[in-house]
Each structure stands twice: as C-alpha cells, then as structure tokens.
Design brief:
Blueprint lengths: L13 H14 L3 E6 L9 H13 L3 E6 L2 H11 L14 H24 L4 E3 L3 E5 L2 E2 L2 E2 L4 E6 L1 H9 L3 E4 L2 E3 L5 E3 L2 H12 L3 E6 L4 E2 L2 E2 L2 E3 H9 L7 H15 L4 E6 L5 H7 L6 E4 L6 E3 L5 H13 L8 H6 L4 E6 L2 E13 L4 E11 L8 H15 L4 E6 L3 H8 L2 E3 L6 H10 L4 E6 L9
Parallel strand pairs: 1-2, 1-11, 2-8, 3-8, 11-15, 14-16, 20-21
Antiparallel strand pairs: 4-7, 5-6, 9-10, 12-13, 15-16, 17-18, 18-19, 19-20, 21-23, 22-23
Helix pairs in contact: 3-4, 6-8, 7-8
The structure holds coenzyme A.
The site of coenzyme A (COA) has 22 residues, from strand 20, helix 12, strand 21 and helix 13.
C-alpha cells in the first residue's frame, strides 16, 4: 500500500463547496459506517479514498471503518499453496483457511492503521463484536465461520466521542478464545444497526449496473429480491452488498450506498451530489406514510392532544381536520398511527408564489428519536414540491431548533408568511418562531 500523496489534493470549486455545505447540518454527529473491500487497497485510488474519509471526519461525521480481506486472503492462499474452503466469510472456514485469513486480515489492519496515521487520523482497532460459531448449516459444520451475536455499542461510542475512528476487522473472538471469520458486509450492517447509523457506505470493487445502466436507487425490498434472484450475472460481492444493504434498511438504517471505489472521488461524489455516482438502497419509507382518511381523524385528534396540552401545537377541531383532510398525512407502524403531518398551501395572487405550510407535525412519545420526525418533514417537503410550492414555512414554539439543526430551515420574520396566514398568526398571540425553507433547490436524492 503506497503512502497517500497529499500534494495531489486540489481545492474544491465554490459550487462544489456550496453543494457540500448544504448537507453538513444534517450529517453532523451522525454515524456513517464505511466498509472498504480488500481489493481496493491495491488500487491507486486508495490514498484519495482515505483522504475523503478524513474529509468526512472533519465535517463532524462520526466514521466507523470496516474492511474486507477477500482479495488478500486469496493472494496469500495462492502464495502458500493452500486450498480455501471459503474466502469471504460466508461459507465453511476450515482450520487452514482460518490460518490464512488471520494472517491476511491482521496484516491489512496494520497497513490501514499506518496509512490513516500518516494522514493524522486517530484510529483504533476495535474488538466490539461478540461472536459465536455459525454452527451447523444445512448439515455442514461451518467450523471457523462466525456469527455476530452482539455489538458493544458503548465501546464504539466512547471511541467516536474521542474523535477516534474505530476499525472493525472481518473476524472476531468468542468467549472461549477462538478466532472466527466474519463477512465484512455483515459486520458493517450489524454495527450500523446497533449504532443507529445514518448510512452504510460500501466501497466496492465495482458499481452496480443492470443492462449497462447504473442503478442509482433501489428500494430495500427490491435489493433483497435482486440479491436472491439476479436478473443478470452479478459479482458475488455485489449480491452480498445488495442483500445486507436491504437488511440494514429494513432494520432502520435510512440509507445504504454502494460506490465503485476504483473511481476517484466516488465517495464524496455519491454523498454530496444530487445525482450521486453509485447506488443508493433506501427503506421503503413512504409506504408507511399515507394520506389521512376520515377513519384516521380520531387517531389524529388523540395524537395531537398531548402536544396541544404542552402548547406545542395549535388546537384543531374534528371539523377543521375534516375540512382540510386532504392536507393531512399519517405515519403507521404495524398498522398503528404513530405520527402525523399536514401540508397546507397558500397562493399569493400578487406574486403568483405558492407557499406551503408544514403543520401538525407530531410523533408519539414512545416513537420519538427514531427519525420519524425528520422523515415526515422530508415527506412534507416532497408533497409541497409536488403541489407546486416554492417554499415551505413552519410555525413552532418548541421545535424550532429541530427544524434549523436537523433539516436546514432558517428562522424568518412573520413577513415570510402568506398574507392570510399572517393575519391568523398575529391574532393567535402564540408568538411562534417562523421557519422557512426554499424548495426550489433540487431535492437531495442521494441523502
Ligand atoms: C419535534 C418532533 C416532531 C421530533 O420528532 P422525532 O421523531 O423525535 O425526531 P427525529 O427522530 O426525526 O429526530 C430526533 C433528533 O431531533 C432532535 N430534536 C427532537 N425534538 C427537538 C426539539 N424540540 N428541539 C431540538 N431538537 C430536537 C433530537 O434531539 C434528535 O437529535 P439527535 O439525532 O442529534 O439525537 C417531536 O418531538 C414532536 O412530536 N414534538 C411535539 C410536537 C411539535 O413540537 N411539533 C412541531 C411543530 S409543527
């Protein structure tokens, strides 16, 4: 592995910088699990990739690194004339294969530590995985292949808090002191789920193309289906990423990206451009959000009551909700309404500008802090855009920081409100903060 050449870095253009800065507030202090395929370590683009990891860390993103070693294990096995039972930690690992894996994985950890230290990035190899033998599968003893039982979240969070990047290896140790081989994609996903990461980013040996076309986005359910029944021949590496990426999304990780690590700047381009350059797997979020019907009105009223008592939401009557029912949306979990949002629209005949108002945002107490609030705001923004709104305003007495810090809204004066809404605002005497977001910027599809 060569030393990173810092002289090759070039300053970003201002438009690039602006694009990047737009995303910074929502990524700050969020965990990104980055999983790097072993083969990439040998490629010229590797130094630049590590520098990009340093960029993410400098933006206060909490990075966790996972690496794969399939390529190194194969090379070492060929050198020593050993026939492997499995090279990717998915199949059976016999003692000879395990011996090769330990040497290759350990050597790679040492090289990775050296390169990251040269970039002045504080890193530590983490032993945060509690692992058991995979046991007997379909009648075959998997021997030294392991299964992740638990992730020690506290130890990882302690490293992240100290600005140290934890590095997780594709192997672990069980309670009896046995070393077991793990698949790096599985490691990345288990860690991301446990840390409630915002993203898993698989830096792969190649990108995902079907019929010659890059697959820019795919829903989790479709990713798992494609992994099971590929419509054309796909590398086993990509199939594994589709499978684990789909699992991650269905277990609550909002976004999983697969990027081709052989392309320079692929990591930053995927994260900080609207179009992306890789494949984004996303949870089927919107399936859970549906337009409210008359049957939802009692649930809407009861959900809002708590916040009305806390003076966070304006009281609304059953009739008022019925009157504007088409503006209301409900988020359901397992068939139960757990959150709501409304989008009202106002037209200014003088300017021709249509403004949306995000209202009635509410998440039931037991479901807070799981991303539902942000999901509903993003949904409301998409709805407002689809309904022709140029901008979205929200009035809030207690959640204005949530809008500012998590969703990129700015505090405005009441002048920003459309005329009829402004009159009602003055009359209410609630003195809510007015928050505003310009919807004309293209939606961040890769976020
Ligand atoms: C505000 C509200 C919608 C957030 O919903 P949620 O599902 O818990 O939010 P998410 O899970 O998407 O986001 C959680 C993050 O937002 C932060 N957050 C939540 N409420 C916040 C508030 N009032 N002020 C500042 N930050 C807040 C959390 O600390 C958390 O931050 P972290 O990710 O850094 O830990 C919810 O708390 C609520 O229903 N509040 C009462 C009603 C209300 O005030 N509505 C807004 C008026 S329109």
């Amino acid at each position: 592995m060569s030393q990173p050449d810092l002289s090759k870095t070039h300053p970003p253009r201002f438009e690039d910088l602006r694009g990047i800065l737009r995303y910074v507030p929502q990524f700050r202090q969020r965990v990104f699990v980055i999983s790097i395929d072993g083969d990439l370590v040998k490629q010229p683009s590797f130094s630049a990739l590590l520098q990009d990891v340093a960029v993410l860390q400098s933006l206060n993103i909490e990075v966790v690194l996972v690496y794969g070693s399939r390529s190194q294990i194969r090379d070492l096995a060929a050198e020593r004339g050993v026939e492997l039972t499995s090279d990717d930690g998915m199949g059976r690992t016999d003692a000879a294969s395990m011996d090769i894996a330990v040497s290759a994985i350990t050597r790679q950890a040492s090289l990775l530590m050296a390169d990251l230290t040269a970039l002045e990035i504080p890193v530590a190899i983490s032993n945060a995985l509690a692992v058991h033998p995979a046991g007997v599968i379909n009648g075959v003893d998997q021997e030294f292949t392991g299964r992740i039982e638990r992730v020690d979240v506290e130890s990882l969070q302690a490293l992240l808090k100290a600005d140290i990047i934890p590095i997780l290896q594709p192997m672990g140790y069980d309670g009896r002191g046995t070393t077991l081989r793990l698949n790096s994609d599985a490691v990345a996903v288990e860690v991301a789920i446990a840390l409630r990461a915002a993203k898993v980013i698989f830096i792969a040996e190649s990108g995902l193309f079907l019929a010659g076309q890059r697959i820019a986005q795919i829903a989790a359910i479709d990713a798992r289906q494609l992994a099971k029944h590929p419509t054309e021949t796909l590398d086993i590496n990509l199939l594994s990423k589709l499978r684990y990426g789909g699992i991650a999304c269905q277990e609550g990780v909002p976004r999983v990206h697969i990027v081709d690590g052989s392309q320079e700047e692929a990591l930053l381009a995927e994260l900080f451009s609207n179009e992306g350059v890789g494949t984004m797997i996303h949870a089927d979020d919107y399936q859970q959000i549906h337009a409210a019907s008359a049957a939802d009105v009692p649930a809407l009223l009861s959900m809002m009551q708590q916040s009305i008592d806390d003076a966070a939401l304006v009281p609304r009557t059953r009739e008022q909700i019925h009157e504007k029912l088409g503006d209301f949306f409900v988020l359901e979990l397992d068939g139960n309404p757990i959150a709501s949002v409304a989008v009202h629209t106002y037209d200014d005949p003088a300017t021709g500008i249509r403004t949306g108002e995000l209202a009635c945002l509410f998440v039931r107490r037991a479901h807070k802090n799981r991303g539902h609030g942000q999901k509903l705001v993003t949904f409301a923004e998409d709805t407002a855009r689809a309904r022709g709104c140029h901008r979205l305003v929200a009035l809030s007495t207690q959640a204005f920081r949530f809008f500012e810090e998590k969703l990129g809204y700015t505090v405005a004066t009441p002048d920003a409100l459309p005329a009829p809404r402004r009159a009602a605002y003055e009359a209410s005497g609630r003195n809510s903060k007015v928050l505003i977001k310009d919807l004309q910027l293209p939606p961040p599809t890769s976020v």
